[in-house]
Amino acid sequence: MSNAAPTVFIVDDDPAVLKSLSRLLRSVQFTVVTFGSPQEFLERHDP
Amino acid sequence: MLGELSGSLAHELNQPLTAILSNAQAAQRFLAHDDVDLDEVREILTDIVDQDKRAGEVIHRLRLLLKKGEVEQQPLDVNNAVQEVLKLIRGDLANQGVTTLTKLGPALPTVKGDRVQLQQVLLNLVMNACDAMNGNAPADRQIVVSTELSRWRRRPLFGFRPWPGVAAGELEKVFEPFFTSKAHGLGLGLSVCRSIITAHGGKLWAANNPERVPPSISLCPSNNGASL
User: Fold this and answer.
1) pLDDT tens digits along A9-25
2) CB contact under 8 A, A19 and B30
3) Does B26 contact A17 at a Cβ distance shorter than 8 Å?
4) Do B15 and A28 touch (CB under 8 A)?
5) What digits encode the pLDDT tens for the residues B44-82?
6) ipTM for the whole complex
7) Tens digits of per-residue pLDDT, B83-93?
8) Which residues pair with A10 in a beta bridge?
9) Environment class of residue A47 by beta-carbon count within 10 Å: exposed (0-12), middle (13-18) or buried (19+)?
10) How far is CA B209 from CA B126, B154, B164, in A?
11) Chain B residues with CB-CB distance to A10 below 8 A
């Protein structure tokens, strides 16, 4: 875990905001997973 | 009015502005990498352009909303104005599989008003009706547009019977700024429409549509000709 790039989870209902924030974080080497709603995050995210 | 607007307006503008800023900063960083992915940068620029237009659209609609009272008065034929709008959007309607049924009243009085603004109202109502019928079966996508003499002697009316699914209690709410039932709607369309019609001395109203009949839009000029 300490060597791997940290993963950032983004939840936002605006697709344009979601996409742009995801790009910004990827540009500084984070791994990014995006979700359109809290429900989607809870369903898809497996801690 | 501004008080009502400012909170939601901040949000509506913040979304595209956030997207523009994050995209631009991401592009700056991507370009600083050794192996620049130009496709990604191109996509980013496209999105920046789109989001800038989105922000511009909010401002544009807001200006319309605030421009109350400044109506350019030109005599105009309501039937002719309706036909022009329908001609303009014929292609859009065909693409969405929507048909229109027009019932134009005979010998209507000429009204005074801003042709472009009134046509924007009609356009907006038609497009709203189209969006609402998106999920309907192809045979069930018709909009009725009619003109007739106003039942109110002195006041022109501009009415529409919206899509099924708007509860009676919600009817007035559809005219509030930023009220929307659409995932990506701005919720400014109908409030702008009402401001325009009010500035013309008219009344824009919505009626309930419990029988799920096709959405209908009616324009009812008044006889005194002083307004709208």
Assistant:
1) 999 988 999 999 999 99
2) no
3) no
4) no
5) 999 999 999 989 987 876 676 566 555 667 888 888 888
6) 0.86
7) 888 888 888 78
8) A34
9) exposed
10) 16, 27, 5
11) none
Taking the mean position of all CA atoms in its chain, how far away is CA B154? 26
Contact A16, B43 (CB under 8 A): no
Interchain proximity B26–A16, CB inside 8 Å: no
pTM: 0.56
Which chain A residues contact residue B51 at CB under 8 A? 16, 20
Classify strands B111-113 and B74-76 as parallel, antiparallel or unpaired.
antiparallel
Count, in order, helices (H) and strands (E) of chain B: 6, 7
- Which residues have C-beta within 8 Å of that of residue B123, sequence separation ≥ 6? B85, B88, B89
Write the burial class of residue B90 (CB in 10 Å: 0-12 exposed, 13-18 middle, 19+ buried): exposed
Calpha distance B151→B222 (Å, rounded): 8
**Pairing of β B142-147 and β B99-104:** parallel
Nearest beta carbon to residue A23 from set B16, B22, B51: B22
**Shortest CA gap B182–chain A (Å):** 13
Contact A16 B19 (CB under 8 A): yes
Residues of A with CB under 8 A from a CB of B: 14, 16-17, 19-21, 23-24, 26-28
Residue B41 and residue B31 in contact, taking contact as beta carbons nearer than 8 Å: yes
Q: Please name every residue paired with B75 in a beta bridge, in sequence order, or none if there are none.
A: B112
Q: What are phi and psi of B110, to 5 degrees?
A: -70, 140
Question: With a CB-CB cutoff of 8 Å, which residues 26-85 of chain B face chain A?
Answer: 26-27, 29-30, 40, 44, 47, 50-51, 54
DSSP string, B151-163: SSSS--EEEEE--
